[in-house]
Amino acid sequence: MKKYIGFLLLVLLPFHAYSQQDLSADELFVKARTAAFDEKDYSKSIDLAKQALEKAPNYTDISVFLGRLYTWNKDTEAARGVFEELGKKDVQDEDYFIAYASLEYWNDDNTKAVAIADKGLSVHPKSEALWLLKARAYFADKNYEEAENAIKNLLTINPKNTEAINLAVRINDLIAKNAISINYNYSHFDKQFPDDWHIVSVGYKRVTSLGSVILRANYANKFAENGIQAELEAYPRLSDMFYLYVGGAYSNDVGIFPKYRTGVSLNANLPHSFEAEIGYRQLYFSNNIWMYTASVGKYYKNFWFNIRTYLTPDNKNISHSYTGTIRYYTKSAQDYFAFQIGTGISPEESRNNLLENETFKLKTFKVGGEYNFSVKRNLFSVGAMYFNQEYRPDVKGNQFDVTLGYTRKF
């Protein structure tokens, strides 16, 4: 039997080799793509691409694909050799410039990546992929002004480019070294409290080489009494993917504000325009309140979707708070409409002092919206929120909030 199988192999192998050699360049190209994308066998795909090029040495698409294969196979020098040969032939294909610029960007030669992208844009000025590569290369080099210019050009071509909006939001936080802001929040209660609440916050933000730092002073008039709080927040960057939120606040006016407020979160900018956060918040009035938070966000075209939860454990159970947010970006990362809906009280809200009496265990519903727009380096915001809260068992009241904000970047 073994002799019979061996005989068959000897007979069939020449036919197999002949049929492989008899395939056209296009057919070999299809096989190479199948080997790369379906089988994840880059070595096999490289061999097939080389065979295809022997039949059609000037087939640019196959040469570019071969360069990509070497890139994915981490053979940087071979990939660079393929692209340099195409450059000598003065190839003008958009995919060639994208593949070559990507190689240099992934290997941290951002200056060369920008140069290649610029050469490609001179031929293909509306290439979204090249504008995005150029913005990413500048962003990686911390040249945020040029990165912002590249993103603005891309969004002019396609305002719904998901990855561009995602990067634009990240650039927006870093583009100006300094910013001052003032915000006002007004709260009216129909039953729960006889007096309206007023909160004014004044802040200063400084972008450093390690990340952003924000110093803020908060004044509040609640229960017809005044209070002041000092607050400090920082967003240190750990890598291109990860950054931290670290925050703390102090006030002598306990009841209007918590005496201490702290928080730490790990944030991640994930592939496919996702982002995530996990961390804790702590409030101290006369006792500690520990709250654990997690959120996930996703950019899609002009939209940003986010859902966040706060979990507050005690001796008997775990209290839950959930908030869903949708943003619709218009002309830039600073211009958007937002809609929010949720349950429970979060420690970030101006009414977090209500947590002291454990009213967070009662039923709360909230819904509201916000509009942010910019005029050059001036940012304006206006928002409104409605709360329906069970402040005593089976007794509900309504709260209406209006928020106004202004930020000046310089």
Automatic annotation (TrEMBL):
The keyword Signal applies. The keyword Signal applies. Residues 1-19 form the signal peptide. Gene3D superfamilies: Tetratricopeptide repeat domain. Residues 177-349 form the YaiO beta-barrel domain. TPR repeats lie at residues 128-161. Pfam families: TPR_19 (PF14559), YaiO (PF19413). Keywords: Signal, TPR repeat. InterPro entries: Beta-barrel_YaiO (IPR030887), TPR-like_helical_dom_sf (IPR011990), TPR_rpt (IPR019734). NCBIfam families: OMP_YaiO_dom. This is YaiO family outer membrane beta-barrel protein. It comes from Chryseobacterium shandongense. The lineage of its organism: Bacteria, Pseudomonadati, Bacteroidota, Flavobacteriia, Flavobacteriales. The gene is yaiO.
